[in-house]
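Consider the tokenized backbone below.
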């Protein structure tokens, strides 16, 4: 199926809002514009089979100025210049310097022309009208899509903040019937599925839109299979979750829309090159808009920016256990000791290290174990863990006392009995 049709179908079937449709790349219109460029070249009498092209685009105050530089023989000069005068075109013509005349630029037709042999070549610089229009339309559409991206990002950012606010109200740690653990599990599924942005893949970065869709569906299936929603205590949690779900669908829709617009830009430039033979536009045009536009549609992804907003503003509301693990025992680093080097471990693991006469931090090999005192206990961190991970802290405390009992038992078999008594 032709791309124009596919593009149209996506805009219709994916229930793209009308105002988005209006802002999409006008692929069909641009395609017709290409025909006009071809016509213009024909009218002037310039064809790639006969002359050597050098094509360039310049940007002056958000206006695109294409230049066509062609090397021509005196014979061609007469024909083309006459035509340009007749059509009222602006042009510049200069004789080429001897060193600029390379044999490659002598086309077959001019080489066999008897007028050519003894005379130098000329360089003709013209600004065409139709290609200026084509690129200006394309540029303006891309600019508008960048604006669209900024608008949508702001809109989504606001929605994320609202949801974050709602989630923070239902996950207050000491609150009766808090949904802290339920939301933690939901966010854990969300993080694990890496819906919009990948960190573990070899090609870490933006996830392809179709992948994102699949991953989001997998996330929803995780939620359904785990029956986690039934565990919510607060009605507001259900409302917030539905908003979160809707928000993700919206991000997917925007990403898909942006993706198809990007494809449309690439395809239309390819078509332009193929039909006009002004082959440099494919690389020159993207470069041109890159200079003027750091986050341009050909490069930037809305998913990446939104993913960042979700990670920093929403997911951080409910801390994940992974960020509070002791690197030695891989369970919660309770009671936490912060070494001079900055690394954090649980007190049990450090006590064990000291018993083995270790004096270095296991992570950075800094010699900071010897100087440890009870003052190195990170009280603020300890209270934070107690508040946000009460279950894990309780488990760790039970485990610690069990370990202490076992040790005492090894040292003194009667000790256990004593303690129990
Ligand atoms: Zn530990
Ligand atoms: Zn260290």
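A designed sequence for it:
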């Amino acid at each position: 199926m032709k791309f124009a049709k596919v593009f149209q179908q996506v805009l219709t079937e994916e229930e793209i809002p009308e105002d988005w449709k209006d802002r999409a790349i006008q692929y069909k219109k641009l395609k017709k514009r290409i025909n006009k460029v071809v016509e213009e070249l024909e009218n002037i009498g310039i064809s790639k089979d006969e002359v050597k092209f050098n094509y360039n685009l310049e940007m002056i105050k958000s206006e695109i100025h294409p230049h066509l530089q062609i090397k021509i023989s005196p014979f061609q000069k007469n024909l083309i210049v006459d035509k340009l005068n007749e059509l009222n075109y602006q042009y510049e013509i200069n004789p080429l310097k001897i060193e600029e005349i390379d044999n490659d630029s002598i086309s077959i037709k001019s080489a066999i022309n008897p007028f050519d042999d003894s005379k130098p070549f000329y360089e003709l610089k013209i600004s065409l009208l139709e290609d200026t229009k084509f690129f200006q339309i394309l540029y303006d559409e891309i600019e508008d899509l960048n604006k669209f991206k900024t608008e949508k990002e702001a809109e989504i950012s606001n929605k994320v903040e609202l949801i974050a606010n709602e989630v923070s109200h239902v996950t207050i740690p000491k609150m009766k019937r808090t949904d802290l653990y339920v939301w933690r599990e939901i966010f854990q599924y969300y993080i694990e599925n890496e819906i919009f942005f990948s960190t573990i893949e070899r090609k870490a970065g933006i996830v392809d839109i179709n992948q994102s869709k699949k991953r989001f569906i997998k996330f929803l299936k995780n939620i359904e299979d785990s029956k986690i929603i039934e565990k919510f205590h607060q009605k507001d949690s259900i409302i917030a979750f539905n908003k979160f779900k809707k928000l993700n669908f919206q991000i997917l829709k925007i990403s898909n829309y942006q993706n198809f617009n990007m494809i449309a830009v690439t395809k239309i430039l390819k078509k332009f090159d193929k039909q006009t033979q002004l082959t440099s536009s494919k690389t020159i045009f993207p470069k041109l808009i890159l200079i003027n536009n750091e986050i341009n549609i050909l490069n930037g992804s809305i998913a990446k920016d939104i993913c960042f907003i979700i990670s920093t503003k929403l997911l951080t509301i409910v801390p994940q256990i992974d960020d509070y693990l002791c690197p030695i025992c891989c369970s919660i680093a309770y009671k936490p000791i912060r070494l001079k080097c900055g690394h954090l471990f649980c007190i049990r693991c450090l006590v064990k290290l000291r018993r083995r006469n270790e004096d270095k931090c296991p992570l950075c090999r800094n010699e900071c174990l010897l100087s440890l005192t009870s003052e190195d206990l990170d009280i603020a961190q300890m209270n934070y863990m107690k508040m946000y991970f009460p279950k894990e802290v309780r488990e760790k405390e039970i485990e610690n006392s069990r370990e202490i009992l076992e040790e005492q038992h090894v040292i003194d078999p009667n000790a256990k009995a004593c303690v129990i008594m």
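Confidence is low (pLDDT under 50) at residues 105-118, 294-299, 415-421.
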